[in-house]
Amino acid sequence: MAVWASFISAAIGLLAGGIATYFTARAQLRAEAEHAYDRSLRDLRLPHYQRLFHLTRVMPREWLPSTVPCKVEVISIRESLRDWYFGEESGGMFLSQAARDWYFRLYNELESAIADLDDDAEPLSREGAAELRQLGSALRHQLAADLGAAERPRTKWIMPAKTQPPPMPE
After folding, report:
1. Does 106 fall in a domain?
2. Which residues lie closer than 8 Å to 55 by C-beta, 6 or more apart?
3. Which of 127, 126, 150, 130 has its CA nearest to residue 140?
4. Is residue 140 one of the residues assigned to a domain?
5. Range of the domain at 121
6. How far apart are CA 1 and CA 4, in angstroms?
7. Is the dihedral of CA 137, 139, 141, 144 positive or negative?
8. What are the tens digits of pLDDT across the range 99-158?
9. How many domains in the chain?
């Protein structure tokens, strides 16, 4: 009887250990596969996001009064964004959903700005210029966040040590 109890206990232990190992290994493999996919997608996005980031340079954080774009320049901005999205490299295909939302909000605002201007040389209104700047900035921030460039390192040993500034000369 004791032999059978030992045998049954061992069998149950092996079965429980096998099941636990299966589910643990399965979860680990899934996490590794997701991580590999995320890394490869980030690597594919990087050149496209860099190009889009560069294209939005025409919408700086602040326009000088003499550099507010006119209708022709806004049309050029819109066309360069469209060419990036649908061009040979199909940059729009790599946008995350959040980045896509900001991209289309910006694109739609460019369309509205063009419709509001009658003369080709007429500059954007102050409100229209501010809206374009804000949307361009929001898109750039989302691009950086998608790539992980806007995040702090997750492990403490990667963080740079805080250094004290040099003493001021007296």
Report:
1. yes
2. 77, 80, 81, 84
3. 150
4. yes
5. 70-148
6. 5
7. negative
8. 999 999 999 999 998 888 888 888 888 888 889 989 999 999 999 988 888 776 666 655
9. 1
